[in-house]
């Protein structure tokens, strides 16, 4: 089954997922602007990495105004892949497309992407999601992926019986080969997001604080102790928020971190070094805020937030 899919944002996650969905036969349009709009219109999407290099030309790119003018067919499904701090404003910008779609999946880092999108597009049917993909944007329309991770998980209260989400998951899982995605449709998306957040929040904080990649951070005894402290804080706050973790979550998270490619950094580290705004408020900042709300001590993430806060709005490239 081929779907009309709008992918808002063409960074590492949006470019990778949208590109592979187009290779799988879906009608993919990237909602972008500026240099990304021009690059994708002219050259499509390029995915470069250890499983192969692919140039995907059967994609389109558009800006939000095209939907307002009626020049673009409304999507059946939307994937929101912008940075967490842009989730609400982009939803406002693309509101007509989001509210016309049968479902919108938030693939933002962190926990509260759904709430942010709903504030921007109150009439949209928004579902939580997360991506297990390691990559970086090398240039507009060019994504370098760094590992074999290639899956998305999405869902919510009624997701398991939602015909469009069922069809979307089935279409993804019908693909095979080096360029295949995997899809997991779940009801308890909150617990799935918190499980990933144990990895994401730890990796974002530590690679940014140390300015070192996974091969250094997760193979040093002192830094491993900080990673374990981070994981414990995220899990404590997650449980207070209603998340259910498997008994081996802490060990599983540490194994994932230690299994990362040696050269891997968190996406927030790439933003930090480039002088771009950070998703810090929705990562360590969120852990610290929720910790205070639930009277849970979060010394590691409170420290990480305070130390990285001067870079929150970006603009400090070359001064780090």
Written description of the protein model:
By secondary structure, the chain is an alpha/beta fold. The chain has helices at residues 12-23, 34-43, 64-68, 87-93, 95-100, 113-120, 163-173, 189-210, 214-217, 221-240, 249-258, 267-274, 284-293, 299-308, and strands at 4-8, 27-31, 45-48, 54-56, 59-62, 77-80, 103-106, 126-132, 135-139, 142-145, 151-155, 182-186. It folds into two domains: 4-187, 3-Layer(aba) Sandwich (Rossmann fold); 191-311, N-(1-d-carboxylethyl)-l-norvaline Dehydrogenase, domain 2 (Orthogonal Bundle). Helices cover 45% and strands 17% of the residues. The strands form two sheets. Strands 5-2-1-6-7-8-11-12 form an eight-stranded mixed beta sheet, with helices on both faces. β9 and β10 (142-145) form a beta hairpin. The longest helix is centred in the middle third of the chain and has 22 residues, at 189-210. It is globular. The termini are far apart.
Summary?
This protein is an alpha/beta fold. Helix content is 45%, strand content 17%.
What's the layout of helices and strands?
Blueprint: E1 4-8, H1 12-23, E2 27-31, H2 34-43, E3 45-48, E4 54-56, E5 59-62, H3 64-68, E6 77-80, H4 87-93, H5 95-100, E7 103-106, H6 113-120, E8 126-132, E9 135-139, E10 142-145, E11 151-155, H7 163-173, E12 182-186, H8 189-210, H9 214-217, H10 221-240, H11 249-258, H12 267-274, H13 284-293, H14 299-308
Parallel strand pairs: 1-2, 1-6, 2-5, 3-10, 6-7, 7-8, 11-12
Antiparallel strand pairs: 3-4, 8-11, 9-10
Helix pairs in contact: 4-6, 8-10, 8-11, 8-12, 8-14, 13-14
């Amino acid at each position: 089954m081929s779907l009309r899919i709008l992918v808002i944002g063409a960074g590492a996650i949006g470019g990778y997922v949208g590109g592979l969905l187009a290779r799988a036969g879906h009608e993919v349009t990237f909602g972008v602007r500026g240099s990304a709009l021009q690059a994708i219109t002219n050259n499509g999407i390029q995915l470069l990495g250890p499983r192969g290099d692919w140039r995907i030309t059967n994609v389109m790119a558009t800006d939000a105004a095209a939907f307002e003018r009626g020049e673009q067919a409304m999507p059946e499904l939307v994937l929101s892949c912008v940075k967490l701090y842009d989730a609400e404003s982009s939803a406002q910008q693309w509101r007509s497309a989001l509210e016309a779609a049968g479902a919108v999946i938030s693939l933002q880092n962190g926990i509260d992407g759904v709430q942010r999108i709903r504030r921007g597009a109150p009439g949209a049917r928004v579902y939580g999601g997360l991506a297990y993909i390691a990559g970086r944007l090398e240039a507009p329309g060019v994504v370098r992926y760094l590992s074999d991770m290639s899956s998305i998980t999405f869902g919510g209260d009624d997701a398991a019986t939602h015909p469009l989400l069922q069809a979307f998951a089935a279409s993804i899982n019908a693909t095979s080969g080096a360029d295949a995605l995997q899809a997991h449709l779940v009801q308890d998306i909150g617990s799935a997001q918190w499980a990933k957040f144990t990895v994401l929040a730890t990796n974002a904080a530590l690679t940014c604080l140390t300015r070192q990649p996974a091969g250094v951070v997760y193979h040093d005894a002192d830094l491993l102790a900080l990673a374990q402290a981070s994981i414990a804080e995220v899990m404590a706050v997650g449980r207070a928020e209603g998340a259910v973790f498997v008994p081996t979550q802490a060990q599983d998270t540490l194994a994932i971190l230690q299994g990362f490619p040696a050269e891997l950094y968190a996406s927030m580290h790439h933003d930090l070094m480039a002088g771009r705004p950070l998703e810090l408020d929705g990562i360590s900042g969120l852990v610290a805020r929720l910790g205070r709300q639930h009277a849970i001590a979060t010394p590691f993430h409170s420290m990480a937030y305070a130390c990285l806060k001067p870079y929150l709005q970006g603009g400090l490239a070359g001064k780090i």
